[in-house]
Amino acid sequence: MDEPRPATSARRDDLVELTHALRRELRNRGESPTGNWVEDLAEDLHTGRIQGWYYGEGGAALGFQSMRSHLSFGHVHTETGPLALDRAERLVDALREHMPPNARAIDVGLTGLSPEEERALWDRLGGRPGAHLIVRCAMEREIAPEDAAIEPRLPAGLRTVPVRDVSLEALADLDCRAFRHTEDSELFGTDPADYRRVLEELFDSRLGRFLEEASVAVINQEGTAVYAALVTSEQSPRQATYLDLMVDPERQRAGLGTFLVRWGFRTLRALGYGSVRLWVTASNAPARALYERTGFRQTATASIYRWSRPDPDGQPHSG
């Protein structure tokens, strides 16, 4: 198997073609990078602003990574063909081998492989020290006419406000605390500053048009504390996406998650949407139970390969 070549050596048109193919795969599974994402990514790869490697003829493939905080976030996309699995493995290895020295772990998402090929890839990669597999589940629910008639109720002493009425700092702090000590905690970053950057991208419609009217925060009556929030985007004219649902750990199991989900159903129905989808980590049993209880069903899965650099004492960093 030939080694992948640096993306800086590729023709820009080839990189544009590959990033277009990647975007199509992301759209097919409900993720919608918007704006000039394809052209910007191809340009960043071509100039070396984003570190990447690729294969051309015989089954094109692309891998790239970038740093956020002390984590590296990567992606590998392969086109269909007899070499797809081997090339995906080599690209994952290239990303791992070229991790920035200050990165303590890398998460690599995958597109282009069938579920069977993803499992075969994990069979190859999973035995390596520091390797861990994270499975993400896509879930969907039809929005029925009766959803408009159900008015969810908040616990006493709380009220709702538009999510943009809450400061980004407060939302990022809530988001960070809501997912701390879970597998999700390092998918987006390790501190509130990382979550703020993610929220800014969501509000800037980088993953589908931000639906301000279908996004909400739960605060106390005094307006001095935020306890939960829902961020929603438009996937298509008839389908919305719950991008981020966060609940203060000290307020979990108090009905706030159910309130947000059902508030979203009622609002989306009034806005004319026929369905809503979301992604949840398979190991997040409480969240999956909430979504199943409110009528969501699983429609797809996606794998994220995590490799953690050993600590000085020889043990991998925990994910």
TrEMBL record:
Matching CDD domains: NAT_SF
Which UniProt keywords are listed?
Acyltransferase, Transferase
GO molecular function per UniProt: acyltransferase activity, transferring groups other than amino-acyl groups
Record protein name field: GCN5-related N-acetyltransferase domain protein
Q: Residues in domain N-acetyltransferase? A: 158-312
The UniProt record lists the keyword Transferase: yes
The record's annotation in PROSITE patterns points to:
GNAT
